[in-house]
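Batch job 17 of 40 flagged for manual review because the log was empty.
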Amino acid sequence: MTRPERAITRYTTLNRVNHWINAGLFMLLVLSGLSMFHPILFFLSGLFGGGQWARAAHPWFGVLLTLSWIGMIIQFWRSNLPSKDDIAWSKAIAHVVVNDDEHVPPIGRNNSGQKLVFWSMTLLIPVLFVTGLLIWEVYFGEATSIPVQRAAVLIHSCAAICAILVWVVHVYAAIWIRDSVRSMTQGYVTPGWAWHHHRKWFYQLAASRRVGKTTPRKNP
């Protein structure tokens, strides 16, 4: 697909590759983890060649996800720092959902919902990693006591459920906001999209002469 002439780069190739590596590893973790979570979900282990393979692969997926997420932190932490605009935008969430622009305050590169997803995962992934190490029998089984392992399993399971819920919200929002998925697959957005959803960011780009001077009136 041809990139529009006045398109704005929102995510670089490195951003997108890192994101989709995270997405793939997260899905592998969810599927392999759920196969061990309850007998009714054991059939999912067939995706990995059986229960033993799922159990063996799951922690390695976790290690790779943690390393990949460090890349995400390095690239995106600045864009996700809290600001006073987040409070105003959050209070107007009912208007955001129905695209009522007149009552939605302008926001920067990321809105408070995106920031919440980012920082939630930044908290949950280390918790999953550390508790995962404590219950990784092959390498750390003899170094941890049974009570510690039991506590780690409980915390690991609760954190995994929270991470899945955050992921569901993230995917739903990406689909709900038209052309958001395109920005993470092709890397660009239109000036109209930027003005409509991230107006402060758009004006910052315009001020730096990275987009045209004309303010778009509608989201194309």
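Reviewer: the log was empty due to a logging misconfiguration, but the result itself is present. Residues 146-176 form the longest helix (31 residues). Unflagging and moving on to job 18.
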